Amino acid sequence: MSEKESAAQQAIGDIAPKLADLTDQVLFGDVWDREGLSPRDRSLITVTALIALYRSDQLGFHLRLALENGLTQVELSDAITHLAFYAGWPNAMGAAGQLKAILAAAGADQDR
Q1: Residue 10 buriedness (CB in 10 A; 0-12 / 13-18 / 19+)
Q2: How far is it, in rounded angstroms, from Cα 95 to Cα 55?
Q3: Contact at 8 Å (CB) between 51 and 81?
Q4: Rounded to two decimals, what is the model's pTM?
Q5: Which of 60, 74, 76, 106 is deepest in the core (most CB within 10 A)?
Q6: How far is the C-alpha of 8 from the C-alpha of 23, rounded, in Å?
């Protein structure tokens, strides 16, 4: 293990070490690094899938990653609004609440 543990190692490394290793090595070490899509595009796809499937337990991590990967607050907000009509209002409302909390915790200007 490296000096700094990955998010997967921190979250589940003690209870499911192989799952944490696969997350680090295969998912983020291979799938996310492929050349076909940019990290920004992968983040938008992932956030969209998580919202549509109401996978809120993983959504916060991926919203933060999406911001790190270059998606803006406006783009994420627009994606969430668009998804309300295709994935359901409760899914979009939950995602909007998570995005708001993430931005508030980061001290972001919510008008951007």
Answers
A1: exposed
A2: 10
A3: no
A4: 0.86
A5: 76
A6: 7
Distance (Å, whole) CA 53 – CA 56: 9
The interaxial angle of helices 56-68 and 39-52, nearest 10 deg, is 160
3-state DSSP helix/strand/coil % of the chain, to nearest 5: 70, 0, 30
- The CB-based long-range contact list for 14-20 (8 Å cut-off, 24+ gap) reads none
Q: What is the pLDDT along the chain (112 residues), one digit of tens a residue?
A: 446 899 999 999 999 999 999 999 999 999 999 999 999 999 999 999 999 999 999 999 999 999 999 999 999 999 999 999 999 999 999 999 999 999 999 985 544 5
Sequence-ordered list of residues with C-beta below 8 angstroms from that of 64, at least 6 positions apart, any chain: 102
What is the enclosing helix (H) or strand (E) of 10?
helix 7-12
Position of tokens 């972001």?
108
